[in-house]
């Protein structure tokens, strides 16, 4: 039936997403090894019995594509040793982790359409030795709608870690910079802010948030950002929402405006008191406390 997703389309889109997520290093290029596939509930239920077979074929297709990409580099491994030719470093394509992982989920977003395929791939980049900096995760989100596939989002997310005073192999838990207490559909919750910048909102396919709220759609997928100035310890808040944000009952200026039909972030940050009540669309309230 026209508009229905096929297993073949899912497999081809996984391979296409892999190409979008390639991360070149000096001698190797890393390919994402984890793929989360989101389908409209109708497509999900229709194909659910085939997921194991689709995943099996997709892993085989990914292996073959890596082999093909490496095959394109083989002439240099011979020709680079011939007189008169420049020495070109041998370059190989490799999977970022041990094995391919392919997961299937229902796309529960209100604007999800039958026939659409959303794929989010992610993998951890090699960790840096810089003090206070942890691992970095690369995420690529692609959307297939009709005959076209486009990238929805590309992001690099850093997990900050406290540096130890010695070269001990023991990893200490990150120190909480602030505590956020709130209530959503799940009941009372407490979140510890351990990074200098976080995103808060409903999240969703293609929208990565640190603190995901289970709340009505009046709460934007990316509603606010909180940032801590590491040198001074001062906190700031940025409103990215549609229906507004308050701090201690007072509305704060929006950082996002619509220009020619597209959202533009003006990067407006507002100082946040060390203790404050943050209102999101007058529906969810966060009790913020710097530590």
What does it look like?
This protein is of the alpha+beta class and 291 residues long. The chain has two domains: 7-160, hypothetical protein PF0899 fold, CATH 3.30.2320; 178-290, Tumour Suppressor Smad4 (Sandwich), CATH 2.60.200.20. It is 16% helix and 40% strand. It contains four helices and 21 strands. It has helices spanning 7-20, 41-47, 51-71, 74-79, and strands at 23-24, 28-31, 34-39, 92-95, 101-106, 117-125, 133-145, 148-160, 178-184, 187-193, 197-201, 211-212, 224-228, 235-239, 245-247, 250-251, 256-259, 262-265, 270-272, 275-280, 284-290. The strands form five sheets. The protein has a six-stranded antiparallel sheet, with no helix packed on it. Helix 1 (7-20) packs across helix 3 (51-71). The protein is globular and about 60 Å long. The model is unreliable at 128-134 and 159-172 (pLDDT under 50).
SSE map:
Elements: H1 7-20, E1 23-24, E2 28-31, E3 34-39, H2 41-47, H3 51-71, H4 74-79, E4 92-95, E5 101-106, E6 117-125, E7 133-145, E8 148-160, E9 178-184, E10 187-193, E11 197-201, E12 211-212, E13 224-228, E14 235-239, E15 245-247, E16 250-251, E17 256-259, E18 262-265, E19 270-272, E20 275-280, E21 284-290
Parallel strand pairs: 2-4, 3-5, 11-12
Antiparallel strand pairs: 1-2, 3-6, 6-7, 7-8, 9-10, 9-21, 11-13, 13-14, 14-19, 15-16, 15-20, 17-18, 20-21
Unreliably modeled segments: 128-134, 159-172
Number of domains: 2
Number of helices: 4
* CATH top level label of the largest domain: Alpha Beta
CATH topology of the largest domain: hypothetical protein PF0899 fold
N/C terminus separation: 57 Å
Binned strand content: 35-45%
């Amino acid at each position: 039936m026209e508009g229905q997703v096929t297993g073949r389309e899912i497999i081809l889109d996984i391979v296409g997403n892999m190409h979008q997520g390639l991360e070149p290093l000096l001698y190797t290029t890393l390919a994402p090894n984890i793929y989360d596939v989101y389908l409209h509930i109708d497509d999900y239920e229709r194909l659910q019995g085939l997921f194991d077979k689709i995943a099996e074929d997709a892993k085989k297709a990914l292996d073959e594509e890596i082999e093909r990409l490496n095959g394109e580099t083989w002439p240099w491994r011979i020709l680079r040793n011939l007189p008169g030719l420049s020495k070109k470093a041998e370059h190989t394509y490799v999977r970022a982790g041990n094995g391919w992982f392919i997961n299937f989920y229902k796309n529960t977003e209100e604007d999800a359409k039958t026939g659409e395929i959303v794929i989010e791939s992610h993998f951890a980049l090699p960790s840096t030795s810089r003090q206070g900096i942890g691992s970095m995760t690369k995420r690529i989100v692609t959307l297939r709608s009709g005959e076209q596939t486009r990238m929805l989002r590309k992001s690099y997310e850093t997990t900050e870690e406290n540096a130890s005073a010695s070269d001990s192999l023991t990893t200490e838990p990150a120190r909480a910079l602030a505590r956020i207490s709130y209530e959503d559909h799940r009941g009372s919750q407490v979140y510890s802010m351990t990074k200098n910048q976080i995103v808060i909102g409903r999240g969703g396919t293609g929208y990565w948030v640190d603190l995901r709220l289970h709340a009505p759609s009046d709460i934007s997928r990316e509603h606010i950002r909180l940032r801590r100035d590491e040198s001074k310890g001062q906190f700031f808040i940025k409103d990215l929402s549609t229906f507004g944000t308050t701090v201690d009952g007072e509305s704060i200026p929006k950082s996002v405006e619509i220009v020619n039909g597209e959202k533009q972030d003006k990067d407006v940050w507002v100082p946040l008191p060390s203790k404050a009540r943050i209102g999101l669309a007058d529906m969810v309230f966060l009790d913020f406390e710097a530590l």
